[in-house]
């Protein structure tokens, strides 16, 4: 586990921080369910890393809210923002609790598996190898949604995360793609990322 | 607010309880976001009512897990179940926190509204009036998804909730429908429920 980073105040718009916290906490729930369903330590580790990110965002948001509030009216107006941020933080903690089931070897009870299996769409997590045709392409060019029915919901690049990437975002070799889609589509994306499948049909 | 019910032990399969907790906690997040977005006290009250249901389910689950565990191995196996249940409980608490923003008149800061507005699909909550053509029909007959592009995600009937209702579930007058869909479809469902629109086109 990494050492905890020192929290440095940075002036970041509260809106930006809150959107990121909400998006991350939702992504974490999906990742945590999939980690439990597939008993995947990689997905579980991703969840814990994102939890540290959300914690950090929550602290930054608190500082920015304090500085933004000049008087009693501001303080009351910003209360809602701070409550939503703490809700997102607690959702992310709950997702981390689910991830710990996998990482602490508690074992996935058939009941847990059954509860999370009822999701129709599958989640996949793949590393883009250097011989993959995905490397160096923008999402827009790949048109994965219309071609193979998968949606890349996050790209992990080292310690950076691109959540809900846009068409203009490029895939680089070494990236970890997290994608959602049909069982078949996800399988195909895995082959494309590993470089065992070399073309995308229209 | 209702008085808290006394919790009575009932033998209910742990699987059933956990599925219900997961479904409810997910529904609550959607409802809470919509309550904040539309500043709707009705949706916020629904969230709080469901939170009490989830609390109750969590207690029932704890008791059933205790009784199911006969030895150390059972106890370890069931630990994952109990952790997932407590995660669902905390997600539901976080949703309730968001609902309180609406009910305590904290006011919906533009930033909060903006964060929750980015959801493409809308949620609607409508009471089925006695002159509505929906009353007395099964969901299967109505084919709302293919006809107007909405999906009824919950039916509230007095204090009972039907979550993710199936085709065989019937809509009764007085029911509250909670549905998700396009802006237009949701508007049409509202008119059908109020009885101002009398037919469903194919």
Which helices and strands occur, and which strands form pairs?
The structure is a homodimer of 202-residue chains.
Chain A: H1 14-38, H2 41-68, H3 72-103, H4 110-117, E1 122-127, H5 139-142, H6 144-148, E2 150-157, E3 160-163, E4 176-181, H7 183-194
Antiparallel strand pairs in A: 1-4, 2-3, 2-4
Helix pairs in contact in A: 1-2, 1-3, 1-4, 2-3
Shape of chain A: globular
Percent in strands of chain A: 5-15%
Distance between the termini of chain A: 43 Å
**What is the total number of structural domains of chain A?**
2
Structural class of chain A: alpha+beta
**In CATH terms, what is the architecture of the largest domain in chain A?**
Up-down Bundle
Instruction: Please tally the β strands of chain A and state the result.
Output: 4
Written overview of the protein:
2 copies of one chain form a homodimer. The first copy, chain A, is an alpha+beta fold and 202 residues long. The first copy, chain A, has a 4-stranded antiparallel beta sheet, sandwiched between helices. Chain A is built from 7 helices and 4 strands; from the N terminus they run ααααβααβββα. In chain A, 56% of the residues lie in helices and 12% in strands. The model of chain A has no long low-confidence stretch (mean pLDDT 89). The relative contact order of chain A is 0.15. Chain A folds into 2 domains: 14-112, Phosphate transport system protein phou homolog 2, domain 2 (Methane Monooxygenase Hydroxylase, Chain G, domain 1), CATH 1.20.58; 120-194, Regulator of K+ conductance, C-terminal domain (Alpha-Beta Plaits). In chain A, α1 runs parallel beside α3 (72-103). Chain A binds chain B through residues 14-15, 18-19, 22, 29, 32, 36, 76-81, 83-84, 86-88, 90-91, 93-95, 97-98, 100-101, 106-109, 111-112, 114-116, 118, and chain B through 14-15, 18-19, 22, 29, 32, 36, 76-81, 83-84, 86-88, 90-91, 93-95, 97-98, 100-101, 106-109, 111-112, 114-116, 118.
